[in-house]
Amino acid sequence: AQSVTQLDSQVPVFEEAPVELRCNYSSSVSVYLFWYVQYPNQGLQLLLKYLSGSTLVKGINGFEAEFNKSQTSFHLRKPSVHISDTAEYFCAVSEVTGGFKTIFGAGTRLFVKA
Amino acid sequence: SQTIHQWPATLVQPVGSPLSLECTVEGTSNPNLYWYRQAAGRGLQLLFYSVGIGQISSEVPQNLSASRPQDRQFILSSKKLLLSDSGFYLCAWEKGSASYNEQFFGPGTRLTVL
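Above: the input entities. Below: the structure tokens describing the complete assembly.
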């Protein structure tokens, strides 16, 4: 069975600084990988996804993530954050042959300071 | 386009009272449906999923149950709420025929059990 570890529970960063949110996964088969964002008191929205092909995936709001199979990682990056990026970010993994389960990480709270 | 609704948005209930949360999806047919719970400061816990009418799979033994009386309706219930049932409940759907598991989330219901 697959698992996901988000290595940082909270990441404070100043506005316009770069940020990286780390995600590692474990699986014995091929996987699909996702990053979701959750603004306060709302549901989750998909930021980006890796299904196959290019390991660098670009998403909405200027975010991108890189799939590294050898390190089993899928870190999320943004070169310059805004106050409005303050939210909770969830990494998720779904096994290609795994049926109906997507496993979510515990989340990383990104706090952007002025 | 597809939309997902949840109600109520917020709910305050006494311990021992019953619960019924509803989720409906529009604009798609035969979706896979999910109920998650998000406790304060924690990630998403998968509670139930359904691949069709009347088909419910439970992930965690607990005080809750789920039903799917119609193709696009998913209900979360309890006969007697516990304090530990407090949390943010999220419903999600995905295409039943999809080869990857991108999920679309509703706005959530915040449940407080007193």
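Note for the figure: Chain B is about 0% helix and 55% strand.
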